[in-house]
Amino acid sequence: MTEIYYVEDDRDIAESVKHYLGLKNMEVSVFDSMEDARQALRENLPSVVIIDGNLPDGDGNDLCVWIRRRFGEHLPILYLTVRGETSDIVKGFEIGADDYVVKPFEPEVLYSRIQALLRRSGQMKGSRIFCDHLSVDTEKMAVYCGQEEITLSQPEYQIFLLLMENKGRTVTRKQLLEQVWDSNGNFVNDNTLTVAMKRLREKLHGPSCLKTIRSFGYRMEESL
After folding, report:
1. What is the pLDDT of residue 186?
2. How far apart are CA 115 and CA 200, in angstroms?
């Protein structure tokens, strides 16, 4: 099922869109503030984000910019707003919108626009895991710091993937040693992990979201 995040503080419009898209086998989660939307996006990436221009805690443009800076170009963004002036539409596209629909609108048109975005994006959702500005594409086996692809050794990649897959949870040193090295028949000492973690941090430019939990292990944790 296609997952949609809809950032809209008008409850009537939000429920109408949610109901209609639900009939089209789309799951819509509604957020009535930018902060709620940001928090949800930190935990999970939907297939498409729909943004209203006017929100109670800020401007929809600010949310669009935040999404682009944090997740790059891979998450489709569609504006659904009363702002129909040419300057508003142009600005929306300039800061990262993929499509722009002006209220009032026909639900059928909105659905068609979403379908077009999904075709163009190739449904990338689900192959990437994010934590702050770091991400891993599990299909390509590629690691990124922002838009920069980072070259890692096989053990470094396995460490990073294991930490990202367990984002928010502490992974012990013992677990890392067993799953990264022992599972491959390579029995190493504890210092090998220490050296590998040091090199991983350096290649990722010392990310604050990679935490050392003293005497236990490591944890990937979103910044506030």
Report:
1. 63
2. 39
